[in-house]
Amino acid sequence: MKIRHVVESQQFTLPMLVELFSIADQMERVLARGGTQDYQNKIMASLFYEHSTRTRFSLESAMYRLGGKVLSTERANTFSSVVAGETLEDTIRVIGNYADVIVLRHNDLGGAQRAAQVSSIPIINAGDGKGGQHPTQALLDLYTIYKGIGTIEGVKVALVGNLTDGRTVRSLAYLLGKFERVKLYFIAPKSFQIKQDILDYLTKHNVWFELQSDLKKILPEVDVVYSTRIEPELLTQRGERLETISQYFIDDTILKLLPPHALVMHPLPRLHEISPTVDTDPRAAYFKQTRNGVLIRMALLASVLGY
Amino acid sequence: MKIRHVVESQQFTLPMLVELFSIADQMERVLARGGTQDYQNKIMASLFYEHSTRTRFSLESAMYRLGGKVLSTERANTFSSVVAGETLEDTIRVIGNYADVIVLRHNDLGGAQRAAQVSSIPIINAGDGKGGQHPTQALLDLYTIYKGIGTIEGVKVALVGNLTDGRTVRSLAYLLGKFERVKLYFIAPKSFQIKQDILDYLTKHNVWFELQSDLKKILPEVDVVYSTRIEPELLTQRGERLETISQYFIDDTILKLLPPHALVMHPLPRLHEISPTVDTDPRAAYFKQTRNGVLIRMALLASVLGY
Amino acid sequence: MKIRHVVESQQFTLPMLVELFSIADQMERVLARGGTQDYQNKIMASLFYEHSTRTRFSLESAMYRLGGKVLSTERANTFSSVVAGETLEDTIRVIGNYADVIVLRHNDLGGAQRAAQVSSIPIINAGDGKGGQHPTQALLDLYTIYKGIGTIEGVKVALVGNLTDGRTVRSLAYLLGKFERVKLYFIAPKSFQIKQDILDYLTKHNVWFELQSDLKKILPEVDVVYSTRIEPELLTQRGERLETISQYFIDDTILKLLPPHALVMHPLPRLHEISPTVDTDPRAAYFKQTRNGVLIRMALLASVLGY
Predict the structure, then answer these.
(1) For residue B52, which residues of chain A lie inside 8 Å, CB to CB?
(2) Which of B75, B82, B90 sits opposite C270 (nearest CB)?
(3) Partners for C (CB, 8 Å, 3+ pairs)?
(4) Are residues C47 and C65 in the same domain?
(5) Are the beta carbons of B21 and B143 closer than 8 angstroms?
(6) What ipTM was reported for this prediction?
(7) What is the mean pLDDT of chain A?
(8) B85 has a pLDDT exceeding 70
């Protein structure tokens, strides 16, 4: 697979996803053998206009696992050139002479697309703007389901929490909709439900879905519970009662309702969504997600740098 | 060539410049072959007391292209030791036990010289103070002219914009003055013209120069137009009219007056000095400058680390 | 030697210290041969919740000297996840999927211990909280005495300056107390003397010690003078006269009283504790300490990563 840029989830067709997961599987074997120096002459530039130490660390770890090198700034917005009024396009052209791939976290919606249009080297979108894309996160979530359940076709996924604002859930719903016989349950208080654009997309592609507010009812039949945070301050802002949040809390009681093969996922960081007592349950997959993130990002870096 | 420290442009004699450019040419061939790991056991410390992400990235990229490793801080001024009142000299002695070369961006004029006096490892000056030196920038500019025009002897260069304050232009004028039959045109509003010390230096070394305010008039006869920014706020401060700036704007009309072999250069970032429509013209050399910067810095690092 | 985590000085028994110093000696030979790439597939994560550029640089230098790679943040407290309320434990579990060893500087007393309890990869404590541990500093101090004097048994050490607050001196006194026939002189103004808990420990372990305020008197009989800073503002706060500080100042006059084989040590940064004229004396060991720090940290990293 040769990808030029990784800008948005939508660019990945089903065959591309299958191939990407196969490369990620190979990367796991590479790590098990102690790693590689195959990309030792390659440089990745981490260009973060917004803080996201975790995403940055995950991508830089992936580059290091490939043997590569990393130029890094978490404060691209304080670039003297940016302060001086330089356009994103000029900055990208300059960095193109310093590195072999740019990982870009930009504060503007569409920033990654603008960068890709002028860049002489591959761009990997590490998040652009509120409500923008964060494709590597969506891909690692999908890969975690694939590895944990064994397939994505026919998988039943409960998406829980703040489904309105989180780009994670929106992107995942989008990607899951590409697979056959998938069933999606959107479980959230009314003012945090999934937006109509995603539902329209699912309807158009004949994906089965259901809007629910009762988590316990659907638990026995799902393969995956994907939990996300509802910020307490948003709850009150949107006129919901604070107690509502407890309905979405995942603890040992909830685990008893969940099939033994199921996965409990979360994009992290968690606050009170999942009890620490769940951590030792074999179904807890949220820390595995971070490990799979390195594998998927290794696969993406290898794909854009030449595999 | 064995250099101990890179402190100021003046330290480079004509034969040293010729050899440096020859090493930079070799570095281009090294990159074309996919890079080297020759310096994989060497560590460069980026010690930046002031922000300059671009200069830092360029030097770190050069070190990585040589196979080396990089310790990096953009906030050397928040070193607990510096806050506690440690002298620059002590800091340099300490870092000398952590690295093999120090790239220093200091806020005080003469900081690099002070560092070099006590350092057990090579110092590369990445800019010291307002009006101080930034020798690697001057060298990459000169190298870009050398590569683009084929020679520096007899070259005709128009230096345009804020010639009073920019150390880039001052250092470049200084270096160009070392070569035979060079002609320099200083094109700027009166309150932004080149300072007398540079003119005295050029007179003393029999370098032909001319002060001009009309860019269009000299364009047909030059090999290089080197444009720099005049900050609008400085214009008004110095009693010039804002419209003045448009006389120095480089666009397609200006390009038509320029010989086909000429170069349009700029230290970047640009704001409104050069129209984006110029970017695709083969004479646009400002992004090539950033690429040449990596080559020159590879050559300098190799020279101080042992070539 | 296989260590799991480096959390506190107390975990090192006498045989472990002997073995650690032997590994550090080997590391010196590795550096003399030009370094190693033995750990090129290993990643160290520098997770600093507080600034400490010098400690960070020293540890990162050690990892690079081993051939390894480094993920680095000096602002772990601005991790979006930490801001969002993530526990240290969750952060450590996540980073455990990105790296092979975590160097942790935490602001809370006991932070390193908490991290070690949940971490899937080794933790090296690079300082936790005011009055907490900083074991790698204590170990490098001890190693400097061992290398400089040839042995630690029977060594006579004057600890000078602010002995109340500095964790450096407290940890060093603790470690020295493990060796036979050591003599410790605590030389400080009354309100900066060593605390009773250390004296109790020394008494319990039959370590000879003496509290003194007169530095000159004991100088002729010591092997090591370990100087630390007394902040002038603390002096006045605690009702001491500012002139007091001059009694602890180490200059050429003081040097004349010191045996020719002795060491002058200081954890750095220094302000006015040691005259710059002392720097060229062969007994000045404070810059050697920073070099020994890299060796000891290489030995510790190799020990936790598998030697």
Answers:
(1) 80
(2) B90
(3) A, B
(4) yes
(5) yes
(6) 0.95
(7) 93
(8) yes
